[in-house]
Amino acid sequence: MNAQKYVIGNWKLNPATLSQACQLASSLVQMDKSVQVGCVPSFVHLSAVGELLAESSILLGAQDVCAKTATTGAFTGDVSAGQLADIGVKFVIIGHSERRAYYGEDNALLEAKIQQAVDAGLTVVFCVGETKLQYQAQQTLAVLDEQLSVLKSVPADRLIVAYEPVWAIGTGLTPSIDEVIGVHRHIKQVLAGYAMPTVSVLYGGSVNEKNAAEFATAFGVDGALVGGASLKIEAFSQIVAAFADN
Ligand code: PGA
After folding, report:
1. Stated pTM of the model
2. Most exposed among 94, 131, 160, 223, judged by the fewest C-beta atoms under 10 Å?
3. Is 164 one of the annotated active-site residues of the chain?
4. For the segment 223-243, what is each residue's pLDDT rounded down to a tens digit?
5. Given the CA of residue 226, which atom of ligand 1 is nearest to it?
6. Over the chain, what HEC string results?
């Protein structure tokens, strides 16, 4: 069985205003439907974007989730998986390198977040990837093995993995296609060892309208997690089209 394909736009802390977020969401609705498209606005824009996407097949995602509870409680500043599910959110990004680097998120915390997301019925888009130094030291696969180890007991139908080399995020740099294919093969072997043979494995890191077709045709690449280019509607629709064609 082939893994489902996804093209997901991670808007990060963008755009600056609610009206810009709504404009982006409205243009997404017009896009090709032969690949599953997702968009991940910031928390404050989720409800409004969700309403605009309600009649479409586009999946709404969140960028973070409370590690302490899936419901409610005294956790100032947090948003729970249950609250997200209640407003129509379908998935949450966990393990993004920006959260690991800037907020010190470690395996124990990520595991707790995964558990809360799964408990509330959300799908987890789990990001893994090596730093430039680890890449140069040829430690990529060992780093990924350690990051993937938190997934052992996640239900396979609630999981998507995104391979995002840290040094490729927002830099315009990407690994070669052969390197990406090799890493995806390795991730799929690890997941098969966890009895998850059909989990989708996306590539992320400087995907744009020019290189999307190359990633889309690469063996074992089941879609893309797109940052910067997901904020430019023309570029994002070309990326979606590239994955829809292949
Ligand atoms: P980028 O970001 O496409 O801007 O490199 C990808 C990501 O962080 O998910």
Report:
1. 0.97
2. 131
3. yes
4. 999 999 999 999 999 999 999
5. 3
6. CCCCCEEEEECCCCCCCHHHHHHHHHHHCCCCCCCEEEEECCHHHHHHHHHHHCCCCCEEEECCCCCCCCCCCCCCCCCCHHHHHHCCCCEEEECCHHHHHHCCCCHHHHHHHHHHHHHCCCEEEEEECCCHHHHHCCCHHHHHHHHHHHHCCCCHHHEEEEECCHHHCCCCCCCCHHHHHHHHHHHHHHHHHCCCCCCEEEEECCCCCCCHHHHHCCCCCCEEEECHHHHCHHHHHHHHHHHHHC
